[in-house]
Specification:
single chain; alpha/beta; Rossmann fold; seven-stranded mixed β-sheet
Length: 296
């Protein structure tokens, strides 16, 4: 499966490009829930330095899965979910209510990074999970994020990692290597999306250097593995179905007829070789988090 820079995280989006995040709500939420163990380990790592935050901000929160994980991981903190999609924020508030953290959970609606000016106070932890790459000038956005930190506050940027894999290289029909070919067309689509953003500026993705240029001290980078081996639970299988369906819809014009036919068969619930039924479906990926601190 292609590593979808737009949807794989289920988290962290402004309205860069023409993406309808509300229409993707179910996939975003399913993905974040499946990936939650990796996010939880990342928050534990951040918690080694951010021990008792007063204000935690999820900049580009999507449907609030990770923001609610933050409320659980930092029980003394106020958590603010910021996103450009009102339907996603509505889902985030509903999740917070179900999990019993609504009394210390708030939302901010609007485009990043400008909407963060509405924060009531400075953040002790500001998390940006694949929201930054939807902003044209990433260097300027990092500076704006850094300005919202309290002295000694931490900025955590989740960008990069490894593509999601859910199928073997040879699925038993069609041409082997479909996941790698999907990666190629997704990377090309991502490059086009970046180039078309308002005020787009090309940057070398050296996140440590970019964080330093924003006036912060880079304190570490770590990757967090998500490994759900076959046979996978129903929730993870449903995510795989949704993600492959999106890949088929989004990349149809960029794939040849053979690959489109493979995806059609993989998504046909009546076919024994489909991801609905085959026993060898898995989920494997890695998320990379870059951590930096605002000097006191």
């Amino acid at each position: 499966m292609a590593h979808d820079h737009e949807a794989r995280h289920g988290h962290g989006h402004t309205h860069g490009g023409d993406i309808d995040w509300a229409a993707m709500l179910a996939l975003l939420e399913a993905e974040a829930e499946v990936f939650a163990p990796a996010y939880a380990r990342a928050l534990d790592w951040l918690g080694e330095d951010v021990t008792a935050p007063g204000l935690v901000v999820d900049a580009g929160s999507g449907p609030g899965v990770i923001a609610c994980l933050m409320a659980e991981r930092f029980p003394g903190a106020r958590v603010v979910a910021a996103d450009g999609s009102a339907p996603l924020l509505e889902r985030a508030r509903a999740r917070a209510a179900r999990q019993g953290v609504a009394d210390r959970f708030g939302t901010i609606s609007g485009e990043l990074p400008e909407s963060l000016s509405e924060l009531d106070g400075s953040a002790d932890l500001l998390w940006a999970s694949r929201s930054l790459h939807h902003l044209g000038d990433q260097r300027a956005a990092l500076a704006a994020f850094a300005a919202r930190l309290a002295p000694g506050g931490t900025l955590a940027v989740l960008e990069g990692g490894l593509p999601v894999r859910c199928l073997p290289r040879d699925v038993g029909f069609g041409r082997p290597g479909l996941p790698a070919r999907l990666d190629v067309v997704q990377e090309e689509r991502f490059a086009r999306m970046r180039a078309e953003l308002p005020g787009a500026v090309a940057e070398t993705e050296d996140w440590a250097a970019l964080l330093t240029a924003a006036g912060l001290k880079h304190t570490g980078t770590r990757s967090f593995l998500l490994d759900i081996p076959a046979p996978i639970p129903d929730r993870a299988r449903a995510f795989v179905v949704g993600a492959l369906t999106r890949a088929r819809d989004v990349h149809a014009d960029a794939l040849d007829a053979g690959d489109r036919a493979m995806l059609d068969r993989l998504l046909d619930p009546t076919d024994p070789g489909s991801v609905h039924r085959r026993p060898d479906v898995f989920v494997l990926t890695a998320h990379t988090v870059h951590r930096a601190v605002r000097p006191v």
